[in-house]
Amino acid sequence: MRANNTRPVYLLILLLGVILNLIVIRFFHERNESREHQAARRTSEAFLEKMYASFRFEKVFDKEYGTLFTSVAGKTASEAASLGRLWLHSHNMASDACEIVYFSDKVPLNVSAESSEDWKFMLSRFDTGLIRPRLEGATKNRMIKLLNGGVGFPRLEGKPGVIQQVTIAKDRTYGIWFSDPEKYKTGINAMIVLIHARKLTDRLIAENLFARLGVAKSEFGYVNLFNPEDSLVPNGLNPYVIAPRVSGMDIKSGCEYLTFGDREILVLFKPDGRILLTVMNYKELPAPFWSLSLFFFWLPLWFRARQTEQTGLRLSLTSLISFVFVISMALPVLAVGFYWNLFIDSRRESAKIETASRLEKLLIQLDANFTEDFRIIRKKYVDLVSILNKDNSDLQTFIDQSIRLELQFLFDTCLLIDSEGRFVRPYAASGMQVRRLVFYDMAHR
Predict the structure, then answer these.
(1) pLDDT, tens digit, 9 for 90 and up, residues 219-239
(2) Do 73 and 79 touch, CB atoms closer than 8 A?
(3) Is 0.70 topped by the overall pTM?
(4) What is the CA radius of gyration of the chain?
């Protein structure tokens, strides 16, 4: 076969090959970017869940007070006071957010003479070692009074370096203590810190949590759903805009991707009103490295096109048939691969929608059944109490019916006391989860 001017043919084939290569490169590049975006989303969602699990004052500041004690141990009272002020400032805490008392040989150094004995008493009760004598009577009442109703003081006994909540009051809510007289013979060797919850804000906890995890405030944020003013968000975002968007969602717990301006924001929200967010910054991926090798496939044709003269040139029938065969095989394979990928993505989305729809129906059914079950159980309680409300109430009937309900695990304990203070109905102090074992054989227990 002869062609009078084959150079344009070579150039045209070369152009078509380059276009085909670019299509293949773009296809795989977009697929890699899609996978990268999905991986980045999963990573961000998991990280926000981790942040939410750590969004507690005890978890955020547990090690921080240990760092403070390490810095002041062995120092004088004046040096410790200066270091304490710097520590509070570095954590954005008010000077009166907590009471920090330093000890040297169990003697408080920075308190008034009137309260010195109280702080000595607290340290002696906390630093008990492994054997903790039980406080009773006036000693117990004194401890509870010093901790502002701190009935949870046993959590601090014998447990140095651990923040514990001792009361639900807003003052002296949390406590932590340290003591190491064997290591530090002189200077400060013990410390008690009592923290006031009224001085703690969610914004303060968020700032210190971000610092502890080493994340930038320009990429992560926190929004208080019920008090947007107590929020910490990156520049350009408004908590008073984010909070209503989240509040208006049908679901009250989960992750959602929202768009504010030109930024995509991942928000994690829970029923307690805490919203954690991060700005999605997807990594720019280069074209697949192996795609560069596709262009080498056309190098022989490019050299052939350059060397071809405008005069007639014999075009081998074998070459022509080979080229047509390769093109006829490559185009269908690429087309099938492209449409197969679209089909798989479509099937995944369809499966997600189908699963979500099925789960939604199950939730609706559970909600409807819950209402009915609640009505039935409530009626059983009302009927039980109505036995005693009758004028001619039958006490034994009430006892028998209450025992039947107790065996159905509808309540833990029923105490029935007569006018003389005697128990007229047998009862068990163990929980229903323990009493449930009675109905199983010994091997199963």
Answers:
(1) 999 999 889 999 999 998 999
(2) no
(3) no
(4) 37
